[in-house]
Amino acid sequence: MPRVLQALAGAPEGGAEMHFLRLCLALRRAGVEQRVVIRPHPKSLEVLRAGGIEPVTARFGGLFDRETGKVLRREIADFGPDIALTYMSRASAAMPKGDFLHLARLGGYYDLKYYRRCDHMVCITPDIKAHCVKHGFADSRVHVIPNFVEDHRAPPQDRVALETPPEAPLVFALGRLHENKAFDILLEAVAKVPAAYLWLAGDGPLRGRLEQQAERLGIAGRVRFLGWQHDTAPYFAAADVYIVPSRHEPLGSVVLEGWMAGVPMIAAASQGPSWLVRDGDDGLLVPIDDAAAMAAAIQQLIGDPQTAERLVQNGRRRYEEGFTEAVAVRRYLTLFDSLMAGSDEAPRGTGLPLSR
C-alpha cells in the first residue's frame, strides 16, 4: 500500500471539500496510511477526526504565506509519502518537490499555470482531461477517475416540520447558491408548476437574491431555503423529484447523489450531466436556462410514475456500476500502483470509457 499525503486549500464547505473528505475516509477504510493537511475549518476537522484521521492544519494563504511551505516540508520529512495528492490550485502550487509522485486532482477547467510542477493530473471527466492535454500536459500524465458518493440512506425528513403538505409534489435541489448553479431558473420552473413545493439545500452569495426572486414570483410560501446540510439523505428520501439545474457543472457529484438516493432526476445539459445522464433512461436532460422545459419535465415525472420509476432503477444501476466508494478506491489504488511501478500509461480498466 502506498503512503499518501493529501492536501486541500478549500472553503469550509463545497463540492471539492466534500469529495476530499470522502476520499480521505474511504482510503483509510481501505487500509491506506495517510497524512492529511487542510485549512482549520471546524466541520472538516470534525469529520476527519470522527473517521479516525488526525489532520494537520495550514493556512494556504497564497503568494506571501511562507508558513504553509514549512508545514508541508515538515510533514513530508516526517511522513515520507509515496504519493502527494493535492486539490485545487493553492495546495497544488504550495506542494514542495520531493522524493514522491505529485498528483493533482482536478474537478474543473482551472488555470493550469498552478499545476506545472505536478507529475500527474487526476481529472474527474474526460473533458477536463482534454482541457489539460490541450494546455500542454502529455496524455500519459493525465488520468480520469470520476467522483463517488457514499451509499447512505435515511428516513425521510418530516414534511410537516418544514410546512410542506404531505400530498404536495416535492422538488429537491442542492448546491452552492451561486450563478453557475442556476437556481434562479429552478425558481422560475417551480413557479410554472402550481402544486409543487421546493426544498433547496445550500448556501452562498445569492441566497438573498434568490429569496427576493421567490417573493417576486409569488412562490415564497412554497419554497424552503434549508441552508447548508452535511446530511442530505433525509431530504432526498422525502422528495418526489430531484433537479440539477446548473449552467456550469464539470461533473456533478450531485447527479451521483440522485442516482444513489433513488429519486427521479432532471438535469440541465451542462458539461458533466450531459456526459453522465442518458436522457430518458436514467434521468431527463433539459436545455440550460430553459425554465419552461424544466417545468414540463417536472410535470412529466409527477404525472408518470412508471417513467419516474424507470429512471430510478436505471440510475441506481449506473451508480452501483461506476460511482460507489469501492469502485473509486479500486481506481485510485490501481493508478497509484501503476505510477509507482514506473508505468507511463494510465492503468487499463480503471477509468470510464471516454464515450458511450
The largest sheet is: 7 strands, parallel
Question: Ends: how far apart?
Answer: 33 Å
Helix and strand element order: EHEHEHEHEEHEEHEHEHEHEHEHHH
Uncertain spans? 343-356
Task: Give a quick precis of the structure.
With 356 residues, the protein is an alpha/beta fold. Helices cover 40% and strands 16% of the residues.
List the helices and strands and how they pair.
Blueprint: E1 3-8, H1 15-29, E2 33-38, H2 42-50, E3 56-57, H3 67-79, E4 83-87, H4 88-94, E5 101-106, E6 120-123, H5 126-134, E7 142-144, E8 170-174, H6 183-191, E9 197-201, H7 207-217, E10 223-227, H8 233-238, E11 241-244, H9 253-261, E12 265-268, H10 271-276, E13 284-286, H11 291-303, H12 305-322, H13 325-340
Parallel strand pairs: 1-2, 1-4, 2-3, 4-5, 5-6, 6-7, 8-9, 8-11, 9-10, 11-12, 12-13
Helix pairs in contact: 6-7, 6-11, 9-12
Walk me through what this model shows.
- This protein is an alpha/beta fold.
- The chain has two domains: 3-148 and 324-340, Rossmann fold; 160-322, Rossmann fold, CATH 3.40.50.
- 40% of the residues lie in helices and 16% in strands.
- The protein is built from 13 helices and 13 strands.
- Strands 3-2-1-4-5-6-7 form a seven-stranded parallel sheet, with helices on both faces. It has a six-stranded parallel sheet with strand order 10-9-8-11-12-13, with helices on both faces.
- Strand 4, helix 4 and strand 5 (101-106) form a beta-alpha-beta unit.
- Helix 6 (183-191) runs parallel beside helix 7 (207-217), helix 6 packs across helix 11 (291-303) and helix 9 (253-261) packs across helix 12 (305-322).
- The longest helix is centred in the last third of the chain and has 18 residues, at 305-322.
- The two termini are 33 Å apart.
- The model is unreliable at 343-356 (pLDDT under 50).
